[in-house]
Design brief:
The complex is a heterodimer of chains A (114) and B (112). Helices cover 0% and strands 49% of the residues of chain A. Chain A has strands at 5-7, 10-13, 19-24, 31-37, 44-50, 53-56, 65-68, 75-79, 88-95, 103-105, 109-113. In chain A, the strands form 2 sheets. In chain A, strands 2, 4, 5, 6, 9, 10 and 11 form a 7-stranded mixed sheet that branches. Chain B has no helices and 11 strands. The chains are: A mainly beta (114), B mainly beta (112).
Chain lengths: 114, 112
């Protein structure tokens, strides 16, 4: 999806463990979004960055979720003390080059909490 | 909050049929609407983007229409093929924000 790279693709964690999910967008993209997609559902907005500034974190489900983008490029979504309900696919997205508002998504990181 | 609904939730058709997927949204004040395809275990692939000022967009066998006033969009797939089997997601970008609001998707199976 337009060069958005996410890692790891799959992560299995025991309940209570901390996890970190990485998004590496195309160089130069100002905006970056994180979404959470539960099984059988559409993606839900988590948070939005413009460069290194986190402008909206209203979608983060709890204070166990934390996202950062310290240099305005790579972003990390961290989940502390994981719970079973955190099991989902976490998707990263950036807009295209044409400034039309079109969003391009990475392959996602599938998190399973046992 | 913008609510997006997709009907049907699942659809199975024989190869070669033309089909229509439906998307409805509650707030007509939108910036754009985007259709995505999602294959099992994969991320989202952008298919078509319709700006609020547009009525339709076409790409190959796909045609998406937008009727803002009635809060509806349709994705028309002509001459369906087994390779079209996937989940199709509709997402609305509202004027009041920048985050996309997604429907739950339509799961399409095209049988040979």
């Amino acid at each position: 999806g337009a060069g958005v790279s996410q890692s790891p693709r799959y992560k299995v964690a025991k309940r209570g463990q901390d996890v970190a999910l990485r998004c590496d967008p195309i160089s130069g993209h100002v905006s970056l979004f994180w979404y959470q997609q539960a099984l059988g559902q559409g993606p839900e907005f988590l948070t939005y960055f413009q460069n290194e500034a986190q402008l909206d974190k209203s979608g983060l489900p709890s204070d166990r979720f934390f996202a950062e983008r310290p240099e305005g490029s790579v972003s990390t979504l961290k989940i502390q003390r994981t719970q079973q309900e955190d099991s989902a696919v976490y998707l990263c997205a950036t807009p295209g080059q044409t400034n039309t508002g079109e969003l391009f998504f990475g392959e996602g990181s599938r998190l399973t909490v046992l | 909050k913008q609510e997006v609904t997709q009907i049907p939730a699942a659809l199975s058709v024989p190869e070669g049929e033309n089909l229509v997927l439906n998307c409805s949204f509650t707030d007509s004040a939108i910036y754009n609407l985007q259709w995505f395809r999602q294959d099992p275990g994969k991320g989202l692939t952008s298919l078509l983007l319709i700006q609020s000022s547009q009525r339709e967009q076409t790409s190959g066998r796909l045609n998406a229409s937008l009727d803002k006033s009635s809060g509806r969009s349709t994705l028309y797939i002509a001459a369906s093929q087994p390779g079209d089997s996937a989940t199709y997601l509709c997402a609305v970008n509202s004027n009041s924000g920048y985050a996309l609001n997604f429907g739950k998707g339509t799961s399409l199976l095209v049988t040979p």
